[in-house]
Structures are given as structure tokens and as C-alpha cells.
Amino acid sequence: MARHAFPLVNRIIAEHAGRESVETGELLFADVDRVYVQDGNSPTIARLYREHGLDSVFDPDRVAFVFDHSVLVPNRDMADRIGEAERFARNLGVRVYGRGAGISHLVAMEEGWFVPGDLVLGSDSHTCVGGARQSLALGMGATDIAAAMATGRTWLKVPETVWLRVSGTPHPALRPKDVLLEVLRRFGSETFLYRSVQWTGSWAESLSEDSAGSVASMGVEMGAKCVFLPPRPRSSEGLRSTEAGTDDLVYDLDVSELMPMVALPHSPSDTVPVDRLAGKRVDYVFIGTCTNGRLEDIAEAARVVRGREIDPTVHFVVTPGSRDTYLDAVAAGHVDTLVRAGALVTPPGCGACVGTQGSVPETGSTVLTTMNRNFKGRMGNGGADIYLSSPLVAASAALVGHFPDGEELRL
């Protein structure tokens, strides 16, 4: 008899819909545990509230606003929009995390908003990072977020679940970002479109919490509705799922022979081994974002450049993902190391990723960054070529001024 696994997404949706079970493809309403909003679409949500005569939220303790996209506001129009959004949030009586607190998703991790088994909505596509803690974390647009803020409910379709089984002993230079880029290269986003992806296997189970967050954050680049990473091996918390059944859809990846990868402009799925680009000039290196702006990432960048100076022709920017990460990096000496090497360390937030503030790349320049996506114009200039990599590859490139070969990676 065929054995079937019970996917986490079905279990969580059923519990929040007041059902014993749910089936793939069902459309239904579900209660939400928490909603958070970022400043980019706060003005739109404020307008929706005005248009529909709304003035409250379902629970002020479970709704929050985080101002992360425009930390250093670049112009008057943006300043007016941010000011309006801040007044709207404070008038609702919800918790407001001002500019400099960090990226909403990292703040959510630090504040404990992603509880295993909870249903969390965020007004940003990378809310999927909550899957690192087995939370059903969904990014939604302004209208759905406004409705959830007011009612404490949302509607959704139960996605099909696929299992991504990753195993093997990784090369010392291999990082979670490389595995993500290989998954995108090998399977493409259509494979996982509107599906729940449950990562499993020895590699996924061995990840640190920072690494698991990096993997989960790129669920949207995979095309997934949601993703789930397994709990840390020695964790007493978290939801554990059965392994994939004999009739379940399973994709296997062995990382044993995989080497550091780079995504070419202008798609995260168009990836090649870094050696393919070795020697190509790099003008701008940016390390940060909700994918690689955690303490683990900043520590690696500092380790790579410690006691050395970056290539003087490289613009090297490092943006911690949150205030706590920034303070921890200062306490550990990482910020001092980076600045002495020639890096520009900015206040916490989304930074250059979103393109609404500095540091915007020059036309014709080659950018190597740890961001999650490299669509044309992503950093504010459609004339720049943006490549994606791990912090190890990016920091090594900042030192030598070009894409490094295997010997130039500082392990």
C-alpha cells in the first residue's frame, strides 16, 4: 500500500480554518496569528483604510509596522509618504519599528513572530523566511493585508506540497546561497510555482538558524507559495513532519560535487559556477538584505577581509539586516574589521537592494551582491549588470577586484 506524508501546510491551514483536514486546491478562509507591514506599501494600505471607512485592527498586539525600505529617505516626496505612513500606523495603536530597526523579516525572527505552526502574513514577498521556523509565512499585497489587519482572517488556496531532499557532504566553499542558485538552475521556478516546498535531507537538517533563514527567504524566487525548513537538530521547538511518502512528489539534489555559484544578469535562475567568470572585473560589491544580512554573513565577510584592504576601485557596501545584528557585529569586532578594510557599513535595513535609496550603481558597472534577485533595474539603475553570490564569493571579489577563482576564495 502506498504511504503518504501529511504536509505541514495542510496541517497548519486546517488548524486555522477550523477543519480536521484540508485538500490540495481547496479555497477557504483561515484565521491569522500575526500581520506585519513594511513602509513600501504602508501608504497604499492607509488609503484602503480611508476608502473603506476602517480605523482599527483585529488585535493591536498582533499587527506591526516596520520601516525598512527607506531608512535614509532620499527625497522630499518619499519623506512625505513615510511621514504619512508613520502617522497612520501610530494612530492604529500598533507596534511601530522605526527606521534603523531592520528589515521586517529579520525583526520578525528576532521578535518571535514566526511561531511553529502559526499563520503569519507580511506585506512583502520575502515573508516566506518564516518557513525557517515552520511558520506558514505568506507575502501578500496591500488589499489582502488591509483585509487581514481589519478582520484577522485571510483567504487562500491550499497548495500542493513537493519535497526537496538535499543530501551529501558539501565542499568547504559551498554556502546555502550556492545551493539555492543550483536549485533555481536545475529545476527552475515553474517546478515549484504555487507549491509548498518542504526541504528535507541531511544538508537541510544541518543548517544553522541564520543559514535556514537565508534558504527560506528565497522561496519566492523559487516560485513557491511557502517553504518549510526542518527544525534545528537539537531544538526542542519546531514542527517535525514525516518524510515524503511513496506517492509524493520528491526532487533530489546531492551537493557533494557542487561548487560556489553565481547568478547572471538579469535572473536568479540563470546561474553558473563562479570559476566560469573568474577574472571578470567587479565594480561594486553589496552584502546584506533579508537573504544574507545576518550575523553569520557579516562575520564571514569580516573574516575574508581581516587584515587586508579591498581593491581600491571596488565600491564595497555592507548593510546589516537588523539593529540587533548590527550591534552584535560591532561587539564582535566585525564592523571595525570591515571598515578598516575599506567597506562602507550602512544603517540596518533593506539598503541598496530595493533601489529607492543609495547606494545606486553606476551605468555600465558590474555589481556582485548577496541579494535575492537581480532583475534589471533592481538597484535603481537598469544600466548596471547585477550578479548574485554568497557572502564568501562577494567579499573575496571585493578584495581582488574581480570574480575570484577557486584559489582566491578565502576559506
Write a concise synopsis of the structure shown.
With 411 residues, the protein is of the alpha/beta class.
Question: Which short descriptors sum up this protein?
Answer:
five-stranded parallel beta sheet; 3 domains; Aconitase, Domain 2; 13 helices; Aconitase, domain 3; alpha/beta
Task: Write up what this structure looks like.
The protein has 411 residues and is of the alpha/beta class. It has 3 domains: 146 residues, Aconitase, domain 3 (2-Layer Sandwich); 88 residues, Aconitase, Domain 2, CATH 3.40.1060; 146 residues, Aconitase, domain 3 (2-Layer Sandwich), CATH 3.30.499.10. The protein contains 13 helices and 18 strands. Strands 4-3-2-5-6 form a 5-stranded parallel sheet, with helices on both faces. The protein has a 5-stranded parallel sheet with strand order 16-15-14-17-18, covered by helices on one side. A hairpin with a 7-residue loop joins strand 12 and strand 13. Helix 10 crosses helix 12 and helix 10 runs parallel beside helix 13. The longest helix has 17 residues. It starts with 7 loop residues before the first helix and ends in an 11-residue tail after the last helix. The relative contact order is 0.14.
